[in-house]
Design brief:
- The protein is of the alpha/beta class.
- The chain has one domain: Uracil-DNA Glycosylase, subunit E.
- It has helices at 3-15, 22-25, 50-55, 62-74, 100-117, 127-131, 142-145, 167-171, 181-197, 201-206; strands at residues 33-34, 41-45, 82-86, 121-125, 150-154, 157-164.
- The chain has a six-stranded mixed beta sheet with strand order 1-3-2-4-6-5.
- The structure holds uracil.
- Uracil is lined by residues 45-49, 52, 58-59, 61, 63-64, 86.
Length: 213
């Protein structure tokens, strides 16, 4: 079975999920965006906002448009390289942060998506996504952990993961100075592109053996 078909089965279950109250107030389920067959990276956000809820797609509102600009600049194709999802698939009213219960109810879908895609890397976009996989003490901020590769375990399988700022944070921080959140976002996406998408392994295989020449 293709990844797409497996994901359609999970999406159907998610459509009818009543484990928490969010399913009753949302307009649309926001399951995913991107090409599951070609994506080498899973990017995880927080939860759908108003525009996402109306369109049924993650990261299509103002924050999503800003994310798209940063991705394009870094040479990362949202449609081919990424499978974009959220921690929680239904919009929390008033865009509040999802509760622990809502996250726990949705985690089986999140894990199933990761398990089907089996990405080379997971990009955790903002604090909610990060905290779904890593326990943070109160003093740890996104600014401290962003840009660092780590290993996270999802249902016993290890994945390379990296945290980046959430684009909503960048909407409130316009500076492009050295060390500013926007500059760090550029840096982190360049690192992801370089490590995961600039696959140079073919060079090693195709180079003629020069030993002894
Ligand atoms: N913020 C998110 O975390 N996800 C979205 O899909 C949109 C905004």
């Amino acid at each position: 079975m293709m990844k797409k078909e497996c994901l359609e089965i999970v999406e159907k279950k998610c459509q009818s999920c009543k484990s928490c109250a969010l399913g009753a107030t949302r307009t649309n389920l926001v399951f995913s965006d991107g090409n599951p067959e070609t994506a080498r990276i899973v990017l995880i956000g927080e939860a759908p906002g108003e525009t996402e809820d109306l369109e049924g797609k993650p990261f299509v509102g103002r924050a999503g448009q800003l994310l798209d600009e940063f991705l394009a600049e870094a040479g990362i194709s949202r449609q081919d390289d990424l499978y974009v999802i959220n921690t929680v698939k239904c919009r929390p009213p008033e865009n509040r942060v999802p509760t622990d219960l809502e996250k726990a109810c949705c985690s089986k879908f999140l894990k199933a998506q990761i398990d089907i895609i089996k990405p080379q890397a997971i990009v955790l976009c903002g604090a909610t996504a990060l905290k779904s996989f890593v326990e943070l003490d109160k003093k740890t901020t996104i600014s401290k952990v962003r840009g660092q590769w780590m290993t996270i375990s999802v249902d016993g399988v290890d994945y390379r993961a990296i945290t980046i700022f959430h684009p909503s944070y960048l909407l409130r921080n316009h500076s492009m100075e050295e060390g500013s959140p926007r500059r760090l976002m550029q840096q982190d996406l360049a690192e992801i592109k370089n490590q995961i998408l600039s696959d140079r392994s073919w060079m090693n295989n195709s180079q003629p053996q020069m030993a002894g020449v």
